[in-house]
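fyi for ur records
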Amino acid sequence: MSVKQALRMLISVLLSCILANFLLACDILPNLAASSTPTDTTSSLNQWSQVAPGIEIRYEHWKSAGPDEDTVTISRFDLHRFQLSVGYQPSQPLSLAQWQKQTGAVAIFNGGYFDKHNQSTGLTISNGESYGTSYSGFGGLLAVGEQGNVILRSLSQQPYDPSTERLQQATESSPMLVVDGKRTQFEANASSSRRTVVALDTAGRLLFIVSPGGTFTLDELADVVSSSDLHLQIALNLDGGASTGMYVKTSSRSIGVDSVSTLPIVIYMK
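which gave:
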């Protein structure tokens, strides 16, 4: 190889490295730690794909009332195969990948609201330990009862009663989007943001819907969720914005939309 050829090859390698670093810095290359779109591209739109026994994934293009649209990731779980838990670490919030490594969970999603000190703004119960105070007259509760049953309900319809309920896991958020199969009515600002929704369908399966594009207001989200063909019986908006994220890790596939911030509250499936 001549000196000129060697120099040309060296310049080509250096330019490739510079370009790769630039793309990573701009979040153009796929990277779970900074991704706002699903990292899995093997599934078709509008079709359920089984990624493991009891876990199905589906991608859909959802449109807002305006010209914007987003590719949402919908995860559906057979609750006969999985156990739901809530992780809570206000003193040590973690990324979704770190939560997965710590818990060994097959799937992790962001939970309910927390304040600037990473403290839950509502009731949180993690492995039987209770923190915070339940919302009064608004919002919703995702929980696991004493017998291991998953509960998702409106707190205005059925408030949490610590004297009669022995919940093992719980996180609260707001607003309810669907109750008894119908869209709810609520007051909310008109800002668009990243969104996460947890729901139960009419067959008793648990669903998580993640919209990472910052496309929908809460009113638009309620419209599109309630009018979907997912047969939702009840649906609750979880914390969104910088918190929105999901991570599903199976033996054959990893699917992720990472949160922008680290999370003190997560929901995970094992």
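The helical segments are 3-25, 96-103, 218-226. thats all i got for now
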